[in-house]
Amino acid sequence: MDFLTASRSGEPFEALITKKNYLPNPVTRFCTAELKIRTIHRYLKDLGWEHNETMDWVGIRADEPRRAMKMSRERVPLYTAGVTAADVGKFWTEQPFDLGLPNRNGKTVHGNCDLCFLKGRHQIQSLIAEKPSRAVWWATQESRIHSGGQYIGDGARFRKDRPSYQQMFDNVGEQDDLFADEEGIACFCGD
Questions:
Q1: Each residue of 91-140: pLDDT tens digit?
Q2: I need a labelling partner for 97 at 20 to 30 A (CA). Which of 11, 103, 155, 160 fits?
Q3: pLDDT less than 70: residues of the chain
Q4: According to the model, what pLDDT value does residue 188 have?
Q5: Comparing C-alpha atoms, which of 38, 68, 67, 69 is closest to residue 55?
């Protein structure tokens, strides 16, 4: 697989949800372990790099001290080296390619998981308003979870403390984006 053949429509995540037969949520965030951590370990192994799978390096920067305090120094090399969001942004501007993700004050609200359930509700609604088709995949996952081989419709949510993705999609345009900068749950991908 390479850049041209890589999935762009959530197929690996959907296959993982199908295998687990339930959705990840703020308490059971299996998506991080399976789609990020274990994937990078498999990649390193394919490259022939001998390493211990308990060795996790997390991209927590020096300007994220609250997140870094939860980790041992060996696991947060960017934090230890003093790398900030500005440094990361500068690095990407010097590369021959760019993902073209908008950057607001050093933060990329789109991120690598566009409507991640850990983002704030209003941030998600803002992203849906920007491009409504983003919500389709997420709403589909919430509506397709199986129970005994049968689809159970609205029987599962990524988060039970907010509207479903379908409801957020349906509400796009009904309210102003007053809370677009609302803070979500820290996406602590090292947990």
A1: 878 888 777 777 766 677 787 789 999 999 999 999 999 999 999 999 99
A2: 11
A3: 1-3, 52-56, 104-106, 146-155, 173-191
A4: 52
A5: 38
Other residues' Cβ atoms within 10 Å of the Cβ of residue 93: 8
d(CA 135, CA 39): 25
Contact indicator for 100, 120 with CB cutoff of 8 Å: no
Q: Kindly state the tokens that stand for 83.
A: 């790398």
Other beta carbons within 10 angstroms of residue 75's beta carbon come to: 16
What's the CA gap between 30 and 64, in Å, rounded?
23
Going from the C-alpha of 61 to that of each of 8, 20, 22, 64, the distances in angstroms are 27, 32, 32, 5
- CB half-sphere exposure, 52, CA atoms < 13 A: 3
**Token pair of 28, please?**
């059971």
Structure tokens at 48: 């022939």
Does the pTM surpass 0.85? The reply is: no
DSSP string, 39-68: HHHHHHHHTT----TT-------TT-HHHH
Q: Which residue pairs, CB below 8 angstroms and at least 24 apart, start in 156-160? A: 156/22, 156/23, 157/23, 157/25, 158/23, 158/24, 158/25, 158/117, 159/25, 159/26, 159/117, 160/25
Domain assignments of the chain as residue spans, ordered by start:
57-98
* Sign of the torsion formed by the C-alpha atoms of 158, 1, 132 and 105: positive
